[in-house]
């Protein structure tokens, strides 16, 4: 049977970590790469038998890449510290990878918002892959992306994501992410665009609210669609701010 390492990166991640690690009990190896937690994160990780490695923060993609290189299993299961597998998920994953005909498997993203699951469209994301066939694009400042060589498959396994416990936490997170994203765009030579600044907010709102069916969640869905769109607007606004300051210095 192929071996699996479940790995995650942490810093002060005690809020959901116990539930996350309970959901992966049964893998061959649990790896927690921590960048300086001062809460109960390390205690929780060790209680679940995790290997804990300290690594100063390298950025999202580089930190994930470091963790992937530290995996011992033939297969890697990538979770964030606020993502929980449902019961039976590991059995389904083991059954699928034991067939030996794929190098990666997409799971489904199951968001919660204001403490409750969000209805609507669940997007696939690549979270299970052969260790030797995967690599991260380390140029990404945020929303890190893994590339896997060879055939891929999907399993209808919803991974519960608790990343939006409150509007305050979510907006704070998106404010940080938008700064990183704007910096990445600038380094890639993709400068401020008037059309994007004008159109990003309404168009992304329609995409989230209608195409991703956040409208099914009532006012919660409306609020989340607005906040998600605000992230893209902030990215463009920060690119404009940078260009404006450079022009008027």
Structure description:
It contains 7 helices and 11 strands. With 249 residues, the chain is an alpha/beta fold. It folds into 2 domains: 4-161, Spore Coat Polysaccharide Biosynthesis Protein SpsA, Chain A; 167-248, no CATH class. The strands form 2 sheets. Strands 1, 2, 3, 4, 5, 6, 7, 8 and 11 form a 9-stranded mixed sheet that branches. The protein has a two-stranded antiparallel ribbon with strand order 9-10. Strand 2 (29-34), helix 2 (41-47) and strand 3 (51-54) form a beta-alpha-beta unit. It is globular, with a radius of gyration of 19 Å. The relative contact order is 0.13. The model has no long low-confidence stretch (mean pLDDT 93).
By CATH, the superfamily of the largest domain comes out as Spore Coat Polysaccharide Biosynthesis Protein SpsA, Chain A
- Overall mean pLDDT stands at 93
Largest sheet: 9 strands, mixed
Give the count of helical stretches. 7
Can you give me a brief rundown of this structure?
43% of the residues lie in helices and 23% in strands. With 249 residues, the protein is of the alpha/beta class. The chain has 2 domains: 4-161, Spore Coat Polysaccharide Biosynthesis Protein SpsA, Chain A (Alpha-Beta Complex), CATH 3.90.550.10; 167-248, no CATH class.
What are the defining features of this structure?
249 residues, alpha/beta, Spore Coat Polysaccharide Biosynthesis Protein SpsA, Chain A, 23% strand
How are the SSEs ordered, and which strands pair?
Blueprint: E1 4-10, H1 14-23, E2 29-34, H2 41-47, E3 51-54, H3 60-69, E4 75-78, E5 83-84, H4 89-97, E6 104-113, E7 116-117, E8 124-130, E9 134-136, E10 146-148, E11 152-161, H5 167-187, H6 194-211, H7 218-248
